[in-house]
């Protein structure tokens, strides 16, 4: 079993898509091990996306991620990291496969509805950013 950090981003929460996305989490065979609504400060968003600090979209991305409530999820499944990224689809909703979460709920390459960790090391770091070990089921 593997765990990954998923986020329902502020655009999808504001758009009323939390229930639909959680349904896809459950029907996709992921076990929920942690779930919380957070409102990131700008500094917390900058810390989470620190790896992208030098990218041209960093300021806009961290403003967006701190613009409203988001849902953070600890998801568990066999091959959870790869499978969650597959369910999300490509970063750019316009290029994401039909039926993927980003295609269905995203509106731009920045406001793309969901986040998922990209490797075991980043999953461990990102899960630790939002959840204490004792909180996880
Ligand atoms: P990922 O979320 O698919 O792993 P990353 O390259 O890690 O994609 O980028 C992190 C987030 O930054 C994306 O989910 C998206 O919200 C935003 N982002 C990525 N590329 C761009 C871009 O070219 N313009 C604006 N925002 C971007
Ligand atoms: Mg990424």
Poorly predicted segments: none
Count the domains: 1
Strands ordered across the widest β-sheet:
2-3-1-4
Strand count, sense and barrel status of the largest sheet are: 4 strands, antiparallel
**Percentage of residues in helical conformation:** 40-55%
- The outline comes out as globular
Distance between the amino and carboxyl termini: 13 Å
Total number of helices: 7
What is the CA-atom radius of gyration, in angstroms? 14 Å
* Chain oligomer state: single chain
CATH architecture group name: 2-Layer Sandwich
Instruction: Output the CATH class name.
Output: Alpha Beta
How much of the sequence is in beta strands?
15-25%
Structure summary:
The chain has seven helices and four strands.
Features:
alpha+beta; 40% helix; binds magnesium ion; 137 residues; 19% strand
